[in-house]
Amino acid sequence: MTARILQPARNVMQSGKAKSRRWLLAFDPASPREVEPLMGWTSSADTRQQLRLWFDTREEAVAFAERNGIPYRVEEPRPSRPRRHVSYSDNFRPDRLAPWTH
């Protein structure tokens, strides 16, 4: 069973970057999930899927995996796009391309 070392994307519901600089070590599922026939719950016998380890740097996560003999792969984060800053007053500029109407 291999582990993924990645920097998760930030929450799309928030504009801040809190908790997005840390690195995560998460295990890939070893067996597919199954639907329990009586209750209809989804279950799995693989308990490593529940384990998520957080590290401050990529090097710490790699060192932990190597020290414990865990096969791993590192997923590099995508470069973030620069944010375009707009202000509310831009809606009322006289040189606006489309007139502001309500």
Automatic annotation (TrEMBL):
<dbReference type="InterPro" id="IPR038532">
    <property type="entry name" value="NDUFS4-like_sf"/>
</dbReference>
<feature type="region of interest" description="Disordered">
    <location>
        <begin position="75"/>
        <end position="102"/>
    </location>
</feature>
<keyword id="KW-0249">Electron transport</keyword>
<dbReference type="InterPro" id="IPR006885">
    <property type="entry name" value="NADH_UbQ_FeS_4_mit-like"/>
</dbReference>
<dbReference type="Pfam" id="PF04800">
    <property type="entry name" value="NDUS4"/>
</dbReference>
<keyword id="KW-0472">Membrane</keyword>
<keyword id="KW-0809">Transit peptide</keyword>
<keyword id="KW-0679">Respiratory chain</keyword>
<keyword id="KW-0813">Transport</keyword>
<protein>
    <submittedName>
        <fullName>ETC complex I subunit</fullName>
    </submittedName>
</protein>
